[in-house]
């Protein structure tokens, strides 16, 4: 049984910062991110996520990476958009954490890269 409606889905994200990812929502509250931009294409990892669903196809997906990078996505599946807030270690910032925000289109895709138009 699925733990959330995104489980088993694949998405592509192209942030305004230039970062691009394929996101695989896996079983057991796991997510695999894979960079698709040329500079670091293929970089990947699996993260344990916390996910909340809100009315209107809005999801909050959050995780902490092994490096200490904290990532929070607010995904609007109805409007195909995602906003991200991240923090990472930087002693020059308050609390030793530097914030970073970016946003961009979010689209579900099939394994072959074609659009996934199936409803959640």
Automatic annotation (TrEMBL):
- SUPFAM superfamilies from the xrefs? Lipocalins
Q: Name one Pfam family in it.
A: MoaF_like
Identify the residues that the record assigns to the MoaF-like domain, covering every copy.
8-91
| Top-level taxon of the source organism | Bacteria
InterPro entries given in the database record = Calycin, MoaF-like
- The molecule here is called MoaF-like domain-containing protein
Give the organism the record lists. Enterococcus florum
């Amino acid at each position: 049984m699925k733990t959330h409606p995104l489980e088993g889905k694949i998405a592509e994200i192209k942030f305004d910062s230039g970062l691009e990812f394929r996101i695989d929502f896996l079983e057991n509250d796991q997510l695999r991110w894979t960079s698709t931009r040329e500079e670091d294409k293929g970089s990947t990892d699996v993260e344990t996520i916390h996910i909340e669903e809100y009315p209107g196809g809005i999801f909050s997906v959050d995780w902490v990476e092994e490096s200490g990078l904290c990532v929070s996505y607010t995904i609007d599946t109805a409007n195909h958009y995602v906003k991200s807030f991240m923090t990472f270690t930087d002693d020059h910032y308050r609390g030793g954490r530097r914030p970073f925000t970016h946003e961009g289109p979010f689209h579900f895709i099939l394994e072959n890269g074609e659009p996934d138009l199936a409803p959640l």
